[in-house]
Design a protein that fits this description.
2 copies of one chain form a homodimer.
Chain A lengths: L2 H11 L3 E6 L4 H12 L3 E7 L1 H10 L8 E4 L3 H13 L5 E4 L4 H9 L12 E8 L6 E4 L9 H17 L6 E4 L11 H14 L7 E2 L5 H5 L1 H6 L13 E3 L3 H14 L2 E8 L5 E2 L7 H18 L2
Parallel strand pairs in A: 1-2, 1-4, 2-3, 4-11, 6-9, 7-8, 7-9
Antiparallel strand pairs in A: 5-6, 5-10
Chain lengths: ~300, ~300
């Protein structure tokens, strides 16, 4: 469980980062950016309705003078101004405030001032779980719904830089399924094997892919021993857990959050800079952790 | 976490049950039936190669004279003889020993001596999870791969008697998905809504169905409050978690087993008597718990 703390320590070795918040008049987001500031994780530029921002900040005893504020009461305009700050390099990462997800994503993908790279976007969630000795990166538990084989390649390619930014040079990628053998009646297993082959052939680089894998073989070295999986490239030591679809990913994500002892943080990737899209149901700690993860990733993107 | 213990206490109020083991020459199964005997959960009839059974038992210090043994060295024959004991009412539940799953299931489905009811078989796994105040029944995490709407109805109908046997009169069924609203682009959410409607129309009886539900709304009352889901029939108090497919179910199952503090036991249902099909990777405790669950369910099936 100390792995997330190590990551937080790493943030402090980075150059100080700045997060641009789209529509900052949101109490939960303001609390998260205050904590990020106080914990030396990142500074913030608040874009939105200045009067409302100040009113909410006052009600939460947040000293708003510590942040730069750009007054733009119109939500769409505020998101475009905020994302442009990141696009222009004046901020390092982009965060959703009190704007709906659809319009927030529109700003991310805006052709002129947005952060598109040509890649599809995907979501990655970093977990530090009690009983597992290394960090786990789950993709995609929130964004891509039913990724095709091609999109799974993209998810892997989007996720690798995030894992590398956290200090893991050649991540082990486990395309998960209910079983660890190919079953032609289970497309997820067939695609998992295809991804493995593509990696062996050098079509997916900078990682080791081994699938299909059941979750126990991916995360539990004892299970790998017990099942005699000693010829596998992954034996309970996967870094990236690639889910067959959003239902499997999201249900596992929520099972972990609600039943295990975890620390976690999530960002959107496939963009020019890390995007923080926390959800209503994320805890305060998760929101701060997401800013920290984004800061670590931004550090390597800037180089 | 005391709920599984309550279930074990319940077993002792039942008439003493007997489990027929197919191909009992298996060290893990022999240890499980010894523990079941010692803990007053159930007696066993061991069908298989008597010489091998005695040899393994001796090596494990198991007093084999406490069990009835039926000598049948041929595996297929042994499974048919064992399942016939259950079919004829001489035993109450049927357990897989050292026989492969395929042939074991053939014996379950045998037209003359097996346990078929006309229903499709499905798997149910009972969990007692630290932090969740009631028992959860997960279906199907191991058997049906991609259930159709009709098969999902069958899974619900197979699972209800198991939940009732554990003392819950009108179970709440949560057809799970990544989101709690219907999205036409996500078939799992559409089917979840259809199941809900079928229950409202009386086509699925003896339960309350409310879907689609995300996992947090299904198991966490606080999340339900936080998300303002106060108009839902299920608000963190689901009994049955119905998974969209085997990948989602199995990955959540393994996430719980490997990261949360849990007690669990599983059986196959849709049969005339409970069938215990534990897997290699199940712990010893899970195997014993599965016998206990089967005994509780057998008690109500006998009535």
């Amino acid at each position: 469980m100390g792995n997330f703390d190590k990551l937080l320590a790493k943030v402090k070795e980075c150059d100080r980062k700045k997060v641009a918040v789209a529509v900052a008049e949101d109490s939960e987001v303001l609390q998260a950016v205050r904590a990020a500031k106080e914990q030396d994780i990142a500074d913030a530029i608040l874009v939105g309705d200045e009067a409302k921002i100040k009113e909410i900040a006052a009600s939460l005893d947040i000293d708003v003078t510590q942040f730069e504020i750009i007054n733009e009461p119109d939500m769409i305009e505020a998101s475009l101004k905020a994302v442009k700050l990141v696009h222009d390099g004046e901020a390092d990462m982009y965060m959703k405030g009190g704007i709906d997800t659809k319009n927030f994503l529109k700003s991310v993908l805006n052709k002129e001032v947005g952060l598109r790279t040509g890649n599809a976007l995907s979501h990655v969630c970093l977990f530090d779980i009690k009983g597992i000795d290394h960090l786990l990166f789950l993709a995609d538990v929130a964004f891509m719904t039913y990724p095709t084989l091609e999109e799974k390649v993209q998810i892997i390619e989007n996720t690798i830089p995030v894992v590398k930014a956290c200090g893991i040079e050649c991540p082990k990628v486990a395309p998960l399924a209910a079983v660890e053998v190919v079953n032609p009646k289970m497309p997820a297993t067939v695609e998992a094997a295809e991804l493995t082959k593509m990696c062996e052939e050098g079509k997916i680089k900078d990682c080791i892919v081994d699938g299909p894998l059941s979750l126990d073989l991916a995360i539990d070295p004892e299970a790998a021993k017990h099942k005699g999986a000693l010829d596998r490239k992954i034996q309970g030591d996967a870094d990236i857990l690639l889910f067959p679809d959003i239902h499997a990913g999201n249900l596992v994500y929520k099972a972990l959050v609600h039943t295990a002892e975890v620390k976690n943080g999530c960002i959107l990737t496939g963009t020019k800079a890390p995007v923080i899209l926390t959800s209503r149901s994320d805890t305060f700690e998760t929101k701060v952790n997401s800013i920290a993860l984004a800061a670590v990733v931004a550090e390597t993107m800037n180089k």
